[in-house]
Amino acid sequence: MGYSSSGEVLNCNTYEVATACALAIEADKLICVVDGQIYDEHGRVNRFMSIEEADMLIRTRAKQSETAANYVKVVGEEDISYAHNFPIKEEKEQVWVGRDFVSDYTASFRNGVGFNNGNGLSGEQGFAIGGAERLSRSNGYLSELAAAAYVCHGGVQRVHIIDGTVGGSLLLELFTRDGAGTLIARDMYEGTRTAREEDFSGIRKILRPLEESGVLVQRTDKELLEALKSFIVVERDGSIIACAALFPFFEDKSGEVAAIAVSEECRGQGQGDKLLDYVEKKALSLGLEKIFLLTTRTADWFVRRGFKECSVESIPVKRRKRINLSRGSKYYIKRLQPAEIGHMAANNFALK
Questions:
Q1: Which contacts (CB < 8 Å, 24+ apart) does range 241-245 have?
Q2: Distance between CA atoms of 156 and 152, rounded to whole angstroms?
Q3: Is the pLDDT of residue 344 over 50?
Q4: By the 8 A CB rule, do 233 and 242 touch?
Q5: Fewer beta carbons within 10 angstroms: which end of the chain, N or C?
Q6: What is the model's pTM?
Q7: Are 130 and 1 in contact (CB under 8 A)?
Q8: What mean pLDDT value characterizes the chain?
C-alpha cells in the first residue's frame, strides 16, 4: 500500500516498489522470491546470468509479453547490441563488458517507477512491470527478470531470484556456494573471453609456477600456442588474471577441462568458480554431455563442484592413449545432465 502526496491510497505493484527502492537507496542486492526455478536452454537450473543474458532473454519475448515490451521501450530497442545477434550502430556509444556490448543507458530512481497499476509507462517516471500479466506464468518470470536487468542498469550489482517453495531457500542462496536460485549480475563474466594470440605471455605467466611445482603438466611454448584457441581467459585492466582450457572430444560427447589457474593475487575472489561455470556453459553449447579432468593433487575443490572420481575407462580412448601413467593421475568426471523431464520449455528457460 502507498499514499500519494494528496493522501490518496494506492495499490502499488510489488516489483515497481522494489525496483524504485533498490535504486533510491543504491542497494547492493535485490532479492526476488518466486514460486519456481528459471531454467536455461538445456533444461538445467540457471544458477548464473549476466545482465546481457537476461536482457537478451527479455528481448526475445518482447513481442509476446507486455512486461518485456515495456522494458525494451524504456531501455531502448537498440541501446544494447550484441555482436552475434544485432548490428552495432556506429552512432551508439558502446562499452565493452565481458563478451557482449552494453549500452550507456542508466536506470535511475525518479520519485516512483511507473506506478500505473503495472499497465504501462507513466510519463517520465520510469519502467512499469507486472500487472495482470504477472498473475499468469505463461510468459515465465519476465517481471522478475525485467526488474533484475533494470536495476542492474542502475547500479545494483546483484539480483537473486529464488524459489520460495524450497525450505530455507534464502539461507541456501546467500550462504552456500551453489545457492538455491538464479543470480543475475552486472559483472558475472566481465573480462571473460576466448584467448587470443596476444594472451600467450599472460597465460604462460600464470601457468609456469604450477607447471614447475608439478601441479600442471608442462607444455612447451609451441604446445601452448597450438592449444591457445581452446583456452578461456579472464582479463582485468589489461592483464590476464585467470585461465582454463576446454578440449572437446565430440565423438564421445565429452570435454577435458585442463589448466584451470588463477593468478596468486586474485585467488579467493571466485574467479575459479566463474571460469568453471563459463566452461560448463561452453561445453553444453558444443553439445557435450560430460566434462572430465586429470589431476595428481587433491580434487576436493572439484568434488565440491559436482565432479566424481572415475576409472580410466571413462576417459575417451583418444585421450587415454596420451595419458602419462608415470604421473599417477586420478580421473574425475561431471555429467552435464539437463533437468528432469517434466518442465515446460519456453525460449531459453522453463517453468516447473
A1: 241/191, 241/206, 241/265, 241/266, 241/271, 242/206, 242/266, 242/271, 242/272, 242/274, 242/275, 243/195, 243/202, 243/203, 243/206, 243/207, 243/275, 244/275, 244/276, 244/278, 244/279
A2: 5
A3: no
A4: yes
A5: N
A6: 0.58
A7: no
A8: 77
What span, in angstroms and rounded, lies between the C-alpha atoms of 244 and 249? Answer: 17
Give the model confidence (pLDDT) of 23-66 as tens digits. Answer: 999 998 999 998 888 877 767 778 888 888 888 888 887 777 77
Looking at the chain, the domain(s) classified CATH 3.40.1160.10 span 2-76+126-187
Which grid cell is 44?
538445467
Model pLDDT for residues 267-317, shown as the tens digit of each residue: 887 788 888 888 998 898 888 999 999 998 768 889 988 999 999 999 999
**Architecture of the structural domain at 191-335:** 3-Layer(aba) Sandwich (3.40)
Report d(CA 27, CA 39) in Å as an integer. 26
- What is the average per-residue pLDDT within 65-90? 54
| Grid cell in block for residue 96 | 565493452
* Reported CATH class of domain 2-76+126-187: alpha beta
